[in-house]
């Protein structure tokens, strides 16, 4: 009886050491995956709100997911308990770039591969997707030749705004549409807002210079469409 107990304890110790070793290896592999993913993210990022904290979060998320999968293993009770615990978590920060969401799922997929011990599949998955993402970035795939913008023009109140810039727009723009007209500067001026479509071959500076010659050199502003028309 005593011999059987000793053998059981030795087996438990062996399983514990093996479990810890697997967990450490999964963490290291998922960390490497995270570095590969974040390197691709940094190289392909085009936005104006780059965050180092988000880069660190991607790496941490992959590692955390891998540890969670190792701990759960095939235990159904642990899986349900974890699902209940995670259901109370709420993310308060809005994702500004839709591609950031894809990188979050990218890190989660890599962490799942590392946590389940599918290291080869994980390396293939991460490597191929990093190459594809970088290739899309270098090829500038999906970029539009035509750019939608918002044009705001200020004119004196004694100037008739109806059709006053049509000849200029026809020369410099692909399309244009009047969106709104409102008074400004205590009613002494009008602010006219257009939605315009210009090709990259046309210069915004030439358009602005032509408008300034007609609106008494008052304010002219061109905004990207996503910035909104009420800025």
TrEMBL record:
Keywords, sorted A to Z: Membrane, Transmembrane, Transmembrane helix
From the record, give the transmembrane residue ranges. Answer: 20-41, 53-81, 101-134
- Give one Pfam hit by family name: DUF4956
Q: Which domain of life is it from?
A: Bacteria
Protein name, as recorded: DUF4956 domain-containing protein
Species of provenance: Alkaliphilus peptidifermentans DSM 18978
């Amino acid at each position: 009886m005593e011999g059987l107990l000793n053998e059981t304890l030795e087996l438990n110790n062996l399983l514990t050491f093996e479990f810890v070793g697997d967990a450490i290896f999964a963490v290291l592999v998922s960390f490497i995956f995270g570095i590969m993913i974040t390197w691709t993210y940094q190289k392909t990022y085009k936005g104006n709100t780059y965050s180092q904290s988000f880069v660190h979060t991607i790496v941490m998320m992959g590692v955390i997911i891998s540890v969670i999968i190792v701990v759960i293993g095939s235990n159904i009770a642990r899986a349900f308990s974890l699902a209940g615990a995670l259901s109370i978590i709420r993310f308060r920060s809005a994702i500004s770039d839709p591609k950031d969401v894809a990188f979050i799922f990218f890190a989660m997929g890599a962490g799942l591969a590392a946590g389940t011990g599918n290291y080869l599949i994980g390396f293939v998955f991460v490597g191929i997707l990093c190459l594809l993402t970088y290739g899309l970035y270098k090829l500038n795939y999906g970029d539009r030749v035509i750019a939608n913008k918002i044009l705001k023009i200020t004119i004196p109140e004694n100037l008739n705004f109806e059709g006053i810039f049509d000849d200029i727009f026809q020369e410099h723009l692909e399309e244009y549409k009047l969106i709104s007209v409102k008074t400004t500067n205590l009613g002494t001026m009008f602010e006219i807002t257009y939605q315009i479509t210009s090709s990259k071959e046309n210069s915004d500076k030439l358009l602005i210079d032509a408008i300034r010659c007609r609106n008494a050199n008052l304010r002219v502003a061109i905004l990207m469409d996503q910035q909104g028309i009420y800025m």
